[in-house]
Amino acid sequence: MIGPDIAGIAEQLGVAADTATAIPQLAAEAGLDVDAAYAVQTALLQRRLDRGERLVGLKMGLTSKAKMAQVGVDEVIWGRLTDAMRIPDGGTLDVGGFIHPRVEPEVAFLLDRLPEPGEPIGVFAEAVRAVAPALELIDSRYANFTFSLPDVIADNTSAAAFVVGPWSPVPEGLDNLGVLLEIDGRVAQVGSTAAIFGDPRRALDEGLRLAGRHGVRLREGWVFLAGAATAAVPLRPGAHVRAVVEKLGTASLRASS
Ligand code: OOG
Ligand code: MG
Q1: Fewest beta carbons less than 10 Å away: which of 1, 7, 25, 108?
Q2: What is the atom index within ligand 1 of the atom nearest the CA of 232?
Q3: CA 250 to centroid of ligand 2, rounded, Å
Q4: Which residue(s) pair with 103 in the sheet?
Q5: What is the spatial distance between Cα 52 and Cα 17, in angstroms, rounded to a whole number?
Q6: How far apart are CA 155 and CA 142, in angstroms?
Q7: How close is the Cα of 69 to the center of ligand 1, in Å?
């Protein structure tokens, strides 16, 4: 039996992102299951590496109930971050380069030495050098921001851009820090880091486990996004967006008008 056209699907998703043009969902028709969807994601990453981008981290998705409910998919997913997706803290982003961008507040980890495959997962404090408030910009390449589980995995979990705020040493507790998403100084979403698996540190265990299943090892120096604590909010031209995480500070970006 001939399997799905992994390279062809990656090309379609890559062009959709490059041209900011939505495409219809494709997993059902192409017969993509979760494993094939991660293969598409890897091909999509390769397309970015081929044009000179560098892999700088990993992001988790749908690690909170709020996010699962918003998109109607209830499995934890992971995707890849490259240097071209990173926006400096306080930087400006051209919204014209995206289809229907949304922003969400995140917690980022700066990874230190991680266990070798088969080694027990060490103490979190050893595997993580620093933590920071972060913003993720997601932009599903599918029309109406609607997708199935394999669709969103193939589409690199809607990853589009991210901002990392100032790094701090790992605080005592990370499991119940208040999280705000502000748009133009008004609170748009309120949450707690507890929404991320009860404790965002668990997102790292899940990331190691789930990416490891597909032969992907996390690396020292990588940025790791633990997943949004609240639902995402549409990013309008001209908006000033800030994620505020208790004890960690803020990360912000401005959308060009
Ligand atoms: C999928 C990506 C989810 C998160 O933090 O939960 C994600 C999506 O919502 O389009 O990045
Ligand atoms: Mg996210």
Answers
A1: 1
A2: 9
A3: 16
A4: 137, 233
A5: 17
A6: 9
A7: 11
Regions in the chain scoring below 50 on pLDDT: none
Dihedral sign computed on CA atoms, order 230, 68, 145, 158: positive
What is the C-alpha to C-alpha distance for residues 98 and 19, in angstroms, rounded to an integer? 8
CA dihedral 174, 218, 34, 234 (to 10 degrees): 50
**Per-residue pLDDT tens over the stretch 132-141:** 999 999 999 9
Determine the pLDDT at residue 257.
82
Q: How far is the CA of 73 from the centre of ligand 1 (A)?
A: 10
Please tell me the predicted confidence (pLDDT) of residue 183: 98
What is the side-by-side strand order in the sheet with 91-93? 91-93, 249-255, 240-245, 178-183, 186-192
**Nearest ligand, measured from the Cα of 149:** 1
- Block residue for tokens 């390769």: 46
Q: Determine the distance separating the centroid of ligand 2 and the alpha carbon of 2, expressed in angstroms.
A: 34
Tokens of 175: 């499991």
Residue 123 amino acid letter = V
Atom of ligand 1 nearest to the CA of 147: 10
Would you say the CB of residue 152 lies under 6 angstroms from ligand 1? yes
The pLDDT value recorded for residue 121 is 63
DSSP character for 186? E
Task: Write out pLDDT tens, residues 79-131.
Answer: 999 999 999 999 999 999 999 999 999 999 999 988 776 666 667 778 999 99
pLDDT of residue 2: 75
